[in-house]
Structures are given as C-alpha cells and as structure tokens.
Amino acid sequence: MKNHDTGLTRRFLASRVVTALAEPHGVDRYLNLVNPLWSVRDVRARVVAIARRTPDTVTMTLRPNGLWAGARAGQYVRFGVDIDGVRRIRCFSLAGSAAGAGPLEITAKVNPAGTVTRWLATRARPGLLVHLSQAEGEFTLPDQVGPHVLLISGGSGITPTMSIARTLRDVRYPGRVTILHYARTPDDVVYRAELARLARTCPRFTVTYRYTGSKRNGHFRAQHLRAITPDYADAHAFVCGPAGLLDAVSRHWAAEGISDRLRIERFTVAGAPFLGDPGTVAGELWFSRSGIRVPGDGRTLLEQAEAAGLRPAFGCRMGICHTCGSHKPEGPVRDVRTGVISAEPDEQVRLCVNTPAGDVEIAI
Amino acid sequence: MGTSTPQLTEEQLAALADELDEIRRELVDDLGDEDAAYIRGIVATGQRLEALGRALLWAGWFPPAWLAGTAALSVAKILDNMEVGHNVMHGQYDWMGDPTLNSKMFEWDTVCPAEQWRHTHNYVHHTYTNILGKDRDIGYGLLRMLDEQRWRPYYRGNPVYAVVLMLAFEWGVMLHDLEIDRLLSGRRKWSDTKGIRRQMWHKGVKQTLKDYVLFPLLSGPGAMATLTGNAVANLVRNVWAFSIIFCGHFPDGVASFSEDECEDESRGHWYYRQMLGSANIDGGKLFHILSGNLGFQIEHHIFPDIPAWRYQRIAPRVREICDRYGLNYTTGPLGKQVGSVWRKIYRLARRPPDRPRTVLTGASRVPAEAA
C-alpha cells in the first residue's frame, strides 16, 4: 500500500469481516494478485536502485510498503530475498538517516563465497521485491545524547555508523561527532565522498581514516584515538565492524573501566566452537521426517542435516531469524552460543545454533 | 490381495533403497526456481479462479453465470486442497523458506484443521502405509476395504457408508483424527479428544461462516444462488478428492502388510512396502494437476516431500526399478480404478464364506485379523 491515504483501506482489509471472507489463506494472498507489494501483515519493499560504490560492496535503495514503522538510527532489518526459489534471510544495517521518511538504504559487503550478497551485487535489478522485518537492534542513539558522539567502524561496519552520523546531521545535533573508520585502502571506503562533504560543511564533524592495508596505520590502537580525540572516555562511543576490531575496542574500554559508554554491534557469531565434552555427543541424530539417522558430531544440527542431504530452510545461520526453527520431539541439544543444554521435549529449536548433546530427534 | 509378490532378500532391499535414494538425491539437488514458479503459478491460478467464481455467483440468478461460477469455484477448491494443500503440507516446498508455502503454517480451504491432517496423513498414513492395524487410512475406521479386515454385520452397510463418506468427504476427513471406532470400542477416551475437537469446531465454524453465511449475505437478493453454488463446489471437491484418494491404495493389485512383517523394517523394506501399497492413475497433464499429482501415488509414497509435479519425470525410472525387482507397479485409467474400488466396497460388504481362512497378502500370510 502507498504511504499516505491508505491507512483506512488497510484497516478495512484487516477487519474481521474481510478476514473471515478470506479464510483460510488471509487477505494478503488475494492482494498479491493485484500488487505483490501490498500486504496487511508483512513489510515488503521494492528495490529502486542498486549501486556498486566500491569493488566489494553493493548499495541498495528500498521503498517499503505502508507497514514499515520506521527505524532508529543504527538499527538493522532482516532482509529476505528469493534466490533460485529459496527465501534467503540476512541481517543488514540501515545506512539512511532516521530523521524524515525517505527511502531505506542498505550497504552490504559482498562475500565472494556467499550466496546472497554475491547475488545482490551481480544479479539483482531495480524492481526486485524483497521481504523485510521491522527495524531491530539496540545499537542506537540513546534518548539523551551527551555532548560528544564517537563512531568507530571497520569495513562494512560503516553502515550503522553512517545512519547515526546522517541522523545527527539532520537533527542538527549541537555536539561533536568524531568518526574513526578502518578500511583496507582508501578505495574501500563506501561513503568517502559523503563523509568528506560532511566534514567540510559541518565543522562539528571530524572524520579520520586508518588503512589496515598500510604498515604505517594498521589495526586499532589506543594511540589512534588519543591522536584525534584525547577526551574519548567522555563520549558516547559506538563500534561496529569485524570481530578483531570489536574485541580490541571493547578490551580497551573495559581496561579503562568505561564499558558502559560503549555500544557494540556484532554481525557474526564470534566463532561457534564446540563447547561440550566429546563423550557427550556419541549419540545418534535422527531426522525423523526424512527417516535419516546419523551419528551426532560436534557440528550444528543444520550442518549435519545438510551433510546428510537434507535441505532444511535456514536464514541467518546465527540464531537470530528463527527461519530454521524446527520441531524437536525429544533429545538434548546444546546452544553453541551459550553452552546451555536443553532437553525439553517438543520444543522448537534453531538448527543453526544447536548441536546434539546425546540422542536427538529432529522432525525434518 | 490376489497378487503374488516376490519376497526380496535383505541385500535386494538394500540395493533397492540405494537406487531410490540416488533418485531422491538427484531431485533434491535440482530443486530451485522452476519448482517455486510452478507452485506459485498454481496458487495464483486457484486464487484467480476463486475470485472469478465468487464474482460470477453474484450474478448467480442467471443460470450460465451460476454454472460457470460454481465450476470455477469447484476447480479453485480442488487446486487448493490437492496440488497446493496436500503437497505443501507434506513439506514439499519447505525448502523455499516462504511462510505461505510452509508445511507448518499452511491452512487449506476445507473443514479439516491442517495440523490434524498432518498428523493422520503425513505421519500415521505415510509411515505405516497399508499396515493393517496401523494405517488408519485403510477404511478410515468406517469401511471394510481389505479381505483381512474381519467381517462384522455392520459392514453390510459398506456401500452406504462409502457413499455418505464420498459426499461429505471434507467432514469425514475432519473427523478422522477423532478415531470414532476407537472411541466407540472404548480404546480411546472422549476426554482425550478435547483439544482436537476444539480445533475442529473453530475450523468448521470459519469455513461454514464463509461459504454458507458471509458470501451469500454479500450477494443480497442472490443469496440462494451463492449458497447453492458454494455448496455444490464443496460437493464437487468432495467427490473428486474421495475418488482420487480411494484409487491410491484400494484398487485390485495393491498389497497390504501385517504389523509383524514390518517390525524393525529396513529403509529398503519401507520403500518396498510403499511401492506395493500404492496405485497410480493414468491421465493427461490437466488430470495430474487437478489430482495433485496423486495419479503418481507410488512416486508420492516413496518421496512424499519432493514437489509432486516432478513425479511425472521420474515415473519411468521408478517403473523400470519395479520391473527389475519383479514388483507390481499398479496403474490404470481413472474409470477402471474407480470401478475396481467400488466393486471391492460392494464385495467386502458381503459375509465371507464360513471357514477358517488365511489370506495371501503382499508379501506373506497373515491371520485374518482386523484393526
């Protein structure tokens, strides 16, 4: 539905009478025949532009339907796109300003071995329909922003900090904004031109780059911070980027005893080590709907299912999106993120973040 | 069942399983855009036919509009239940990750709650196919469909029960999970069915409200035309679904099995039982779409979670495997199979000759004991 005068239409379409007439499939199935963007339930969006601003990133501009409830600066969406018949769901940070209701912007790093970003970079065309969640995540500006915001980012981690910077610019934030970005080379900085303009036109913004591809600069060190803003300890600090950067920054903040002033956005599970004692996984993994039995090993249920020739639905593969949620009639599983073992019968488990911890039945 | 079937050795069964697993692997590896486009196309066609049918029924006072509207709605319901509903709920399209085509989330346009169908059909019937005493689809606890079911005077009404079940098929399917025969014989407590009865009530009310109250009311003065059109569409779907489903396991040539011979069975024996326990129906492209590709019942039973429209392509290979192992590949045109089923319904209504008897089943002799 369009953003403006359609609130009433949507309320009518979602009313009890219309819902009862559209049983059991729901109104959306009929709306789809007219316009696939229309829905009374799901956020969908049309890709209106696609650009490759650096060799290994892809930037998309999206126009969502009227169900989009807006985002706070720094949040992400779960982004679903159908590739070769399969809905692939990934989490992408929004790069656009949270002030105003412009189109959404997503910049993703293209993973040469990946499915989704590679497809988006090479095959996606404007007009593509995608499925979105509402905005999620706590990597956002607090309600009360102090006089100094420090944004540290690495690689494609620049997207949520870009959203925060643009929002601070648009709301005419009166304090200082310090941006410290790590990239391999100058050519790898996605928003380089815009950041340069920002620093030129808004004297409260300072932008500093460190290039990890050069010996002189290198990876995060406390001196980098001291050189540009010695009072960094007082700032609201945000860091987003590769695990190495996050670890280095959070270690430093912890050492200074100011961890409460740092917000971290972690895109990937920091490794998924098998935490258990190998003796406990000598069990058997039974995929009961397919009738396949394999010895349980240290890998996740999802990896083992795929190795056994199954193709269970999955999304983020990091325990966020619930796409791979499957019925587990019985058996103990261990959450690789927490190490917690759950032997609850008849529960929904996420295949991507659980390993068998004994005899397990999964109904796939 | 009158058809003698070779007993396969464990080695042969293992080889059979390997061959079929290989076909399955090929199919799974090939899933993609083509399947997604196919099922979405069928969904959209059904949706358009439904909209067209309901629109035409607004002009239902005009007989040609009533006829065309009822026909369109009938086909829409048939597509929804068979090629979309039955197949989606098997998880044939779960790999797409589309919530609207996900087996756990799908609801269909019939009074039977999807969740109960998945239990009675996907689990009970497809796991224990044609095992007397385990597969509740053998006669649905209502009919005598096998010689091995012990005759009782009740079965004199076999043809009558079958006609009633056919006409009210969606209601029969809905009540299936209650296991009425077991309730009557005291093997199941009425209080145990509280949860499923509540689901049946909710789904039944929604479906009835839609087809017999709301859409007729929307038609204003044409309410009766819409009401009768909707009723006939549901009836047409009932008769069609009943006929296709009964041709899947009950024509002559299909084997049944005893619990003993299926205890701790190998994957090879499971395949063997699925192939011998099912029957195909010959037909053209349109017939296969309207029957949810259940004309390929044998292929469906060996690969229940592979998109059904692909069965046609692998059918020659499956048939060749059956021939090679000496297994009966039962198939025939719809008319012949329907006739075979109804003759059996009549024949099994009669009291069998009074003598101690054992019957040759698919693979071995079992005592004449019913579920």
UniProtKB/TrEMBL annotation, chain A:
Organism: Actinophytocola algeriensis
Gene Ontology molecular functions: 2 iron, 2 sulfur cluster binding; metal ion binding; oxidoreductase activity
Protein name: Ferredoxin-NADP reductase
Entry-linked Pfam families: Fer2 (PF00111), NAD_binding_1 (PF00175)
Membrane-crossing residue ranges in chain numbering: none
Record-annotated FAD-binding FR-type domain positions: 40-142
Record keywords, A-Z: 2Fe-2S, FAD, Flavoprotein, Iron, Iron-sulfur, Metal-binding, Oxidoreductase
Cofactor(s) it depends on: FAD
InterPro entries: 2Fe-2S_ferredoxin-like_sf (IPR036010), 2Fe-2S_ferredoxin-type (IPR001041), Beta-grasp_dom_sf (IPR012675), FAD-bd_FR_type (IPR017927), FNR_nucleotide-bd (IPR039261), MRET (IPR050415), OxRdtase_FAD/NAD-bd (IPR001433), Riboflavin_synthase-like_b-brl (IPR017938)
Automatic annotation (TrEMBL), chain B:
GO CC term, one of those recorded: membrane
An annotated Gene Ontology molecular function: oxidoreductase activity, acting on paired donors, with oxidation of a pair of donors resulting in the reduction of molecular oxygen to two molecules of water
GO biological process, alphabetically ordered: lipid metabolic process
Domain Fatty acid desaturase, first and last residues per copy: 65-331
Species this protein is from: Actinophytocola algeriensis
Protein's name in the database: Fatty acid desaturase
